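Now for one record.
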Amino acid sequence: MEYFVSLCLTDLGETNRHPPDSLYNSPLVVAFLAYEAVKLVGHPKKAIKNSFSSALKSFLNPTKQGSSNIYERMQDSLCSFISQVAVSLYKVQGESLGYTQNGISGVFERLYGNEKNPYIREIFKLYVKQFETPPASILYKYLSI
């Protein structure tokens, strides 16, 4: 369920639609919700757990071709596993977009700078500060390439 919520919020963030009143008409709130949902879904432990669960379900409930062929069943199961592991890449992408890197402001800083609602600016003042300096893991990934 968390995955579907993150997809809906991410889709809202990627389109040119105006955020609804329930989100204070703020792209910053949309980005925050999408990032936090993807952070939960993309956590490595959660991704591995979902991968094994999906692979097991796929193996126990085979497709028409997989019901008579064990090779097809194992291939379906492996594809289910890999697709769920790929979801964890959303977290990496969210971090690379959110944090300021190489002197380029991240998404959250830019959205905060463009925010006009004083209530939202006050709420997100401390939240946005964490994105000014990327965590060591992000720096290490980019410096080691």
Helices lie at 2-14, 27-41, 44-60, 70-87, 89-98, 107-114, 118-129, 136-143. Residues 2-143 form one domain. The chain has one domain: 2-143.
